[in-house]
Amino acid sequence: KLWSRTTKDSTSEDQLIIKKCLNTEVETLGNIRHKNIVKLYSYFSNFDCHLLVYDYMPNGNLWDALHKGWFHLDWPNRHQIALGVAQGLAYLHHDLLPPIVHRDIKSTNILLDINYQPKVADFGIAKVLKDSTSTIIAGTYGYLAPEYAFSNKAKTKCDVYSFGVVLMELITGKKPVDADFGEIAMCCTCKNPSQRPTMNEVVQLLIQTDPCLTDPYKFSTKTRDASNVTENQPEEVES
């Protein structure tokens, strides 16, 4: 799959931003190998055009699958997608040193292969957590964690919040809804970041809520707060 960003008609400032995003994506994905993270094969860059070469994803992205009705995602497929994204994020947060915060987890950045296995994509604004967690705000309205929008500090719990919103997207439009699945999503989107689970914990909870299990794990939380998801694609923000 060829993915490109052209800069021929862009301003000098736009070109610098695009080049920075390209460099971030290449540097980040060049060192990452995980089944649920998109694989970067090669890239090409010159003044007029930037190309990134990835695996071809025949089923597009999760947003289109959920909101455009191109094909039906049954409950086992939705669970598989949620678990795969959680495992990819858990790898970024817990298996890498220093950890990486994606900063823009949303359904359009989750690609689906021929078997509906999810691949987390678009690392153009990813943040490597070293000594400092301060950064400019970058992401998408509706998926941004509240504390990130106010403090300009990107931490792993910001990705957890965004993942919770994606879980809510997976739940809506499919009935009956697994109550445990909804509880995990609501916990991920808790306003207090200290009360959100880690991605390793999310992975374990999702494994326990596999629809094939007869006695799913009962996940309880007092939190009942989640972001609303609109039918239109949310607006990206960078300031």
TrEMBL record:
Membrane topology: Single-pass type I membrane protein
Main EC class the enzyme belongs to: transferase
Transmembrane segments: none
Any GO molecular function: protein serine/threonine kinase activity
InterPro entries hit by this protein: Kinase-like_dom_sf, LRR_Rcpt-Like_S/T_Kinase, Prot_kinase_dom, Ser/Thr_kinase_AS
Catalytic activity: L-seryl-[protein] + ATP = O-phospho-L-seryl-[protein] + ADP + H(+); L-threonyl-[protein] + ATP = O-phospho-L-threonyl-[protein] + ADP + H(+)
Domain Protein kinase: 1-239
This protein's UniProt keywords: ATP-binding, Kinase, Nucleotide-binding, Serine/threonine-protein kinase, Transferase
A GO-annotated cellular component: membrane
Keyword Cytoplasm: no
Entry EC no(s): 2.7.11.1
This protein's record includes keyword Acetylation: no
Main location: membrane
Compartments reported by the entry: Membrane
PANTHER family assigned to the protein according to its UniProt record, in alphabetical order: LEUCINE-RICH REPEAT-CONTAINING PROTEIN DDB_G0281931-RELATED, LRR RECEPTOR-LIKE SERINE_THREONINE-PROTEIN KINASE GSO1
Protein name: non-specific serine/threonine protein kinase
